[in-house]
Amino acid sequence: MTIKEYVAARKAEFKDVVSKMEKVPCIGIVQLNEDPASNAYVKGKLKDAAELGIKADLMKLPIDTSEKDLLSFIDGLNKDDVHDGFIVQMPLPKQIDEEKVKLAVDPKKDVDGFHPLSSLFPCTPKGIMSYLKYENVPLVGKNAVVIGRSNIVGKPMARMLLAESCNVTVVHSKTSNEDLARYIENADIIVVAIGKPGFLDNRFKYKESAVIVDVGISRDETGLHGDAIPGLPVANQTPVPGGVGLLTRLALYENLLEIVSKK
Ligand code: GUN
């Protein structure tokens, strides 16, 4: 099943669940910037909410909002009964420390799964894991290589793969080329999330049966590019665009429904 088909099937499931709820769930989206990528993400999130029958409340604050004012705005959202969960769209303007913002969101409302005490996983690894399981990709005892060690993708992805009994290796900018090639050659699952267009290419050898999950999304004048070149000689490779981005969007609502179901 392609990712588009998978997302459509899961959305139909979510829509059905939402239609049977007594109260329509509500997600808050706080946005302080007007950068084109953020506008595109927010537009996608609003479109998904509408499709699923979920209320989305976009709150745009001025770009020069102080950190103190944003934190007190977040405090209000933490305490209100209107929003079941909310996100603060990143990146944030320079005067605001993103880490402080992540910690200010009540873990009980943290649909992004960014808070260290959140019981939810961040949307990208969560979306990827749901997809791998749905597709019955063998995980137990398989060699998974995660390229990149960010707090939002690499590290939680590694933890989730480990929880499924994969043999997990995390490689990063300090890994030697020689080691990288060796890990990739033996990998059954490769998750690449470093934001370097075309980083995985034919200079590496791959298992024919490997699955490549491409989290990268870089834009230039010719369009959007993943961290892997298209058409690598593996069993399955997620496309960019139309791949992991859709899974991330879906997982946001999977997290929201999890929050609502725990109430
Ligand atoms: N900016 C880019 N992706 C995301 C995301 O998943 N959540 C938030 N809050 N900001 C983002």
Structure characterization notes:
The chain is of the alpha/beta class and 263 residues long. Helix content is 39%, strand content 16%. The protein contains eight helices and ten strands. It has a five-stranded parallel beta sheet, sandwiched between helices. α6 links the parallel β4 (143-147) and β5 (167-171). α5 packs parallel to α6 (154-163). It is globular, with a radius of gyration of 19 Å. The model has no long low-confidence stretch (mean pLDDT 97).
Quick description:
With 263 residues, this protein is α/β, with parallel strands linked by helices. The chain is built from 8 helices and 10 strands.
Topology:
Layout: H1 3-19, E1 26-31, H2 36-52, E2 55-60, H3 67-79, E3 85-88, H4 98-104, H5 123-134, E4 143-147, H6 154-163, E5 167-171, H7 177-185, E6 189-192, E7 211-214, E8 218-220, E9 223-225, E10 236-237, H8 244-261
Parallel strand pairs: 1-2, 1-3, 4-5, 4-6, 6-7, 7-10
Antiparallel strand pairs: 8-9
The structure holds guanine.
Guanine binds at residues 41, 87-90, 112, 123, 248.
